[in-house]
Amino acid sequence: DARDLFKKSFASQDQSKAAFFLQESATMTASQVRRQKSAVQELRDAARATADSRLSKIAARLAATGHFDEVIEAIDSMLELLKREETKDLETKETCESDRAADTRDAAKTSRTIDELTDKITRLTAEIADLAKEIEEKEASVAQIKTDLGEAKEMRDKEHGEYLVAKKDDEDAAEVV
């Protein structure tokens, strides 16, 4: 039934008046032109703000061709690239933060060690100064003892000489008696 109806319909139409559905040209409406210009301007502004030459190229292609398909594909591929770069940047950031935290811990540990060693050096320096003073006092004491010993020896020698003289006098006196 339906076939017969279509056959009759096509047969009744004059072949010279038949409509062809071949698009020979395309025109954009005013609103489409405004949207395209707006998109081009937004891309150019974004390119200037980010200093990204890829956005400038996309804007130039959009302005030149007037077709959105290529531009949309370019934007999609750029978004994919930016997502990959974002992932890579995030990994780099995490690595940097991890390294920085480790370096901070090492610096704090090293700082504590330096503080402990500085305290030890200060304590040992004070101890060395005390010992040097004690050595100086002991050396002065030894020098005084040597001086006293020398004087005592002289006195003993003198007294021994006097003793010998007195003894000789006593012996001579004993012989005389």
TrEMBL record:
It comes from the Eukaryota. Residues 92-111 are annotated as: Disordered. This is Uncharacterized protein.
